[in-house]
Amino acid sequence: MTADRAIGMAAFRRILGQFATGVTVITVQHDGRTHGMTANTFTSVSLDPPLVLFCVARTARMTAFVVDAEGFAVNILADNQQEASRHFAGSRKDEAPSAVRLHPGPVAPLLEGSLASLSCATEAVYEGGDHLIVLGRVIELHEGTRASPLVFFRSRYCDVLEGEMAPVEPGELWSNDAIQVYHAEWTEGDDSSFADEPLAPW
User: Dihedrals φ, ψ of 166, to 5°?
Assistant: First the structure.
C-alpha cells in the first residue's frame, strides 16, 4: 500500500480544516468574459519579486479561464462579505446580490468592499495532483476597507474576536516594512544560541 492510499480523503480534509484561513475571491477576465471563484488556497510566495499563488481544482470552471487569461486579481474578503463568498462559491445560482460590485482593475475586476486586492500577472501554472497551482507576480496593490477579515475554519465561516492583545516580546514587533515571521530555527539536541542573530524577514 502506498503512502497516498493510506490516507483517507475524509480524514485528510478534516485535518486540513484545522488550519484557519482567510477567504478570497479570485477574479479573471478573458475575451470579454468575467469569472470569479471563492478560494482559501491563497498564499504569498516571495517578497522579491512579489509573488503569490492560489490553487484551483482541474474540474473547476475557473481552470479554463485562468490558463488563458493574462492575469488575475485576489480580493481578500472582510467579515461582512459572506454573501459575496457564497455567491462566488456557486451556492447562489441567481443573479449576483447587490453586495457584489465589481470594478475594473489592471488585469481583472476588483471586488468592492474587500479588505485589499492584488492585481497579478500570471507567472506560471504548475500541475499539483487534482489541482493546478497558479503563480502570479503582483503588479498593483489596492487598499480596501478597514474591517475584520472573513475567516474559514472547520468548514464554517468564523468571526475574529479582538480580545486583550498579548504583550509583544522583544524582536517580535511586526511592521509593514519588515514583517518578522521566521524566528531562529531549532533542532533537538542543538545547543547553539541564535539570540544574537537577526530574525529572517518574510
Answer: -70, 145
Residue 129: half-sphere exposure toward Cβ, Cα within 13 Å: 2
Residue pair 22/77 in contact (Cβ under 8 Å)? The answer is yes
Strands (E), 68-129: 71-76, 102-103, 110-111, 116-128
User: Alpha helix (H) ranges present in the chain?
Assistant: 3-6, 9-16, 61-66, 82-88
pTM (two decimals): 0.79
Show the CA angle centred on residue 26, arms to residues 25 and 29, nearest 5°: 130
Distance of alpha carbon 37 from alpha carbon 85, whole angstroms: 8
12-41: pLDDT as tens digits:
888 888 888 899 999 999 988 999 999 999
The tally of CA atoms less than 13 A away on the side-chain side of residue 173 is: 2
State the burial class of residue 125 (Cβ atoms within 10 Å of its Cβ: 0-12, 13-18, 19+): middle
Number of other residues whose CB lies within 10 A of the CB of residue 200: 11
Q: What is the pLDDT of residues 102-127, one digit of tens each?
A: 999 999 999 999 999 999 999 999 99
Residues 113 and 81: beta-carbon distance below 8 Å? yes
73 grid coordinates: 486579481
Q: Under a CB-based contact definition with an 8 Å cutoff, are residues 152 and 23 in contact?
A: yes
